[in-house]
Design brief:
single chain, alpha/beta, TIM Barrel, binds S-adenosylmethionine, binds iron/sulfur cluster
Length: 266
């Protein structure tokens, strides 16, 4: 499917929950958020309907995100259901890795191809501080489990800001080189202020080659991370919600005061 600027849209990112087991400083307030009511969260069947329509319109790449996708009950079943939709060439997940050790094998068996694991530092204390309580050893164990399970490639997403020191970045580079993880630095962004940057080592944030649309946990199909437009699948139906979102894709996003990273999924 082509948008009005002739960009081929083949990538759907699905936020499966707004809930999370961490409270990263750049993403969520310390005392959490008012979670979306369960009744407004799309069921697996509703998500599959969106996936099927998206695939019929040309999507062949899907990424599950959140919130934290691994806290969504039954996530392995959802992965399996999505993997069984004919036409999907690439099924990935972005996770904070806290629960990855427990799920890696099951996810791979269900049909997940690869993972991006968020890790902003290699130091346990800094990790605990940045994520407000996360245990870095869980991430390391999760990464190992992902490798053993055959998830490939394994990418590390590291959010950096003006306070991130060169030595922290160097340590991350070394850690990723030693372990053959692909490292991507993501400059800390603000949806509200409209500050966004290309992802170093990735394709995100480069508007002229943007191939994505997004589905939030409560069913809004979003044309752009930095757009306030959204077309709810319960209101428009899955196909029209997707077509409207593609039609509304801006050449370049501006600001987004209606979403947060934890509900649009990054
Ligand atoms: N919980 C999962 C995780 O952390 O990987 C998936 C959801 S998280 C919202 C998706 C990505 O967005 C993560 O890599 C995270 O680091 C990134 N992210 C969150 N807040 C951000 C911000 N303010 N600027 C840039 N990236 C951000
Ligand atoms: Fe949770 Fe991911 Fe946001 Fe951190 S970045 S609070 S892990 S959703």
């Amino acid at each position: 499917m082509l948008d009005q600027f002739n960009r081929k849209i083949n990538y759907l990112r699905i936020s499966v929950t707004d809930r999370c087991n961490l409270r990263c400083r750049y993403c969520m307030p310390a005392d959490g958020i008012k979670w979306i009511d369960h009744s407004r969260i799309l069921s697996f069947e509703e998500i599959i309907e969106v996936v099927e329509e998206a695939v019929s319109l040309g999507v062949d790449k899907i990424r599950l995100t959140g919130g934290e996708p691994l806290v969504r009950k039954g996530i392995v079943d959802l992965v399996k259901m999505i993997a069984e939709v004919p036409g999907i060439k690439d099924l990935g997940m972005t996770t904070n890795g806290q629960l990855l050790e427990r799920y890696a094998v099951a996810l791979a068996e269900a049909g997940l191809n690869r993972v991006n694991v968020s890790l902003d530092t290699t130091e346990a204390k800094t990790y605990k501080y940045l994520s407000r309580g996360g245990d870095i050893s869980n991430v390391f164990k999760g990464l190992e489990a992902a490798r053993r399970a055959g998830l490939d490639p394994i990418k590390i997403n590291a959010v950096i800001n003006s306070e991130s020191g060169e030595s922290a970045k160097k340590q991350l580079r070394e850690f990723c080189e030693e372990n053959n993880y692909k490292l991507r630095f993501i400059r800390q962004m603000s949806l509200e202020d409209g500050s966004f940057y290309p992802v170093e080592g990735g394709e995100g944030g480069i508007c002229k080659i943007c191939n994505r649309i997004r589905l939030t946990a409560n069913g809004d199909v979003k044309p752009c991370l930095f757009s306030e437009d959204g077309f709810n699948v319960r209101e428009f139906g899955a196909r029209n919600a997707i077509l409207n979102a593609v039609g509304a894709k801006p050449l370049s996003g501006k600001k987004n005061k209606v979403n947060k990273f934890y509900n649009i999924g990054g």
